[in-house]
């Protein structure tokens, strides 16, 4: 039996992993990642050339890129919403505390 070295091969529509990152054997893609393009292999023979965009159906790649963009936009909007809520809450607490201090020192 030959030992083949396998290499993780993320599709172009997924975020680029950090340099040197290798998934653990039990790793599964997060649910918010776009679906794999048809026929895409996550693990390839390390001696095989890396896939290029010409290896992927352009329509599938366009749909995957659109889904990735929409997912990132939703994630960013959610992060902005929580940031605004936290900052607004902190300001409200500060203003209320100042009012309480002024009333208490009269």
TrEMBL record:
Span list, region Disordered: 1-78
Protein name, UniProt field: Uncharacterized protein
Positions with biased composition (Pro residues): 9-37
Biased amino acid composition, Basic and acidic residues: 66-75
Organism: Serinibacter arcticus
Keywords of this entry: Membrane, Transmembrane, Transmembrane helix
Ranges that cross the membrane: 82-104
Source taxonomy: Bacteria, Bacillati, Actinomycetota, Actinomycetes, Micrococcales
